[in-house]
Amino acid sequence: MTGVPQLDPVIHAQARLRVTATLATLAEGDRITFPRLQELLDMTAGNLSTHLRKLEEAEYVLITKAHERRTPVTYVELTRRGRRAFEEYTDALRSLLGGQA
Amino acid sequence: MNEVDDREPADAAAALRIIQAQQADTAARIGPRVGWFFLIWGAVWLVNGLLYFLAPGPVATWGAVAAVVAGVASSATLGARSGRGIAGGSQRQGLLYGLTWPAVMLGLGVLVGGMAGPLGLTGAQLGVLIPALFAFVAGALYAVSGAVWTYVANFVTGLWIMAVGIASVFVGLPGNALVLGVGVGGALLAVGVWELRR
């Protein structure tokens, strides 16, 4: 092994880690509404928006707006890139822990 | 409330713990608690079996209709609630799976009902054939969904229900109702309790 694996700074913050882990639990190709995500995370809307923006800037999440029965709905999903980044992040954690976890 | 919270996890172990806790919590909250489906349908089978065994006739028929309607309503509510706010492949999969059951069961009822006349089946013969067919087909659906989702408990329960359905034919009236009620209903209730406890 060479060196210590780098932890992705976009994911390596408690709040964004929770957001990413939650989105990664959904099946690939599934998306979740903003309010349901907020409820699952127990975060304020403002707080969640801020973290989602950071994840969106890194192209880890895709945010889409749709209209359902004339009501605007915001959907959030992990992009393929985000899912891969999350997997690499967890792999890095595991190798940091040297298999002791 | 708070500013942008960029606090890092204390260390790698803490980060991994956050991931595991969050994913376990999410999985438990977004998937339907399948144990409840087993309990609902276990209760329906048990109630119907006891009704047909103890009070055959219109009482059992209307009681069974009421029990099935209650089962359908509570399953649909449970399924719709758990997936709320989530769209995509798994939502479609759940919807199609949920619709398969009433389509198959209603279709089976119509099919057997339609053949009763031409085949000249008596009430007593239908009283054995119809519940056995429902059990057999329900068991097959449990088995195939268990196979597709690699959900072994579902698969084994399905095979068991098929076997009970077949056995009920050899028992004949009125014991067949008791065999189905206890054999199918009891198995579903047991799996439901086990599923909710683990």
From TrEMBL, chain A:
Gene3D superfamilies: Winged helix-like DNA-binding domain superfamily/Winged helix DNA-binding domain. Residues 21-97 form the Winged helix DNA-binding domain. Pfam families: HTH_34. PANTHER family: BSL7504 PROTEIN (PTHR37318:SF1). This is Transcriptional regulator.
TrEMBL record, chain B:
It comes from the Bacteria. Keywords: Membrane, Transmembrane, Transmembrane helix. The chain crosses the membrane at residues 34-55, 61-83, 95-117, 123-144, 151-171, 177-196. This is Uncharacterized protein. It comes from Pseudonocardia xishanensis.
